[in-house]
Design goal:
This protein is mostly helical and 195 residues long. It has one domain: Serine Threonine Protein Phosphatase 5, Tetratricopeptide repeat, CATH 1.25.40. The protein is built from 9 helices and no strands. Helix 2 runs antiparallel to helix 3. The protein is globular, with a radius of gyration of 23 Å. The termini are far apart.
Length: 195
């Protein structure tokens, strides 16, 4: 067996090596930036446990960092807590803000609730086109096991469609389709684990 002789690095080899290292670092940074930070295991469950036992202040404190890290369900629940005044003063504008964030992340519960706010002009200007759009997205976003919620979104959509012109409905459908096209590559809605 011949001994392996190490050759010194040439300048061309060094440049290739540097480019490869730069590519690896760039890919790692892109991955970190594009994916939401993962919360400590069980943190959402602890936040939900606080919520369900009625400790809304603790629940809000626990949901907040999860929402800031891109957790759609935590973001939705913050909106819900603002809408209902649970642990925070009741505030439809804040509810709409948080529902909007969760809706943009694909949470169908937030999409439906945002549609309701637009329907009645609570926290946002009354806008049946936007309302229809969010009901449309919610109806198509629920999982099969959430069929009752899907039916509610469809009924909400049908209810406001009766007060809309055909051109308003077409505009709303177009907005929903544009949203789907722009968000098709994003993360899919995944309901939280329920025990």
């Amino acid at each position: 067996m011949d001994p392996v002789i190490c050759q010194p690095w040439t300048q061309a080899d060094s440049q290739k090596r540097k480019r490869l290292i730069d590519l690896i670092i760039a890919a790692a940074i892109a991955l970190l930036i594009s994916s939401p930070a993962q919360a400590a295991p069980g943190e959402l469950e602890r936040a939900q446990a606080a919520y369900f036992r009625g400790d809304y202040v603790e629940a809000m404190m626990r949901f907040q960092p999860l929402a800031e890290d891109g957790d759609a369900h935590a973001t939705f629940l913050i909106g819900y807590m603002y809408e209902k005044g649970q642990g925070v003063p009741q505030d439809d504008e804040q509810a709409a803000e948080w529902y909007g964030r969760a809706a943009a992340l694909g949470n169908p519960f937030a999409q439906n609730n945002l549609g309701v706010l637009y329907k009645y002009g609570r926290g946002v200007p009354k806008d049946l086109v936007q309302s229809y759009k969010w009901f449309d997205l919610a109806a198509s976003g629920y999982l099969p096991a959430e069929s009752g919620h899907k039916e509610r979104a469809i009924l909400n959509q049908q209810d406001i469609a009766a007060a809309m012109t055909p051109s308003e409905i077409l505009k709303a459908q177009s907005l929903a389709e544009t949203f789907r096209d722009e968000n098709d590559k994003g993360p899919r809605y995944v309901p939280p684990r329920v025990r």
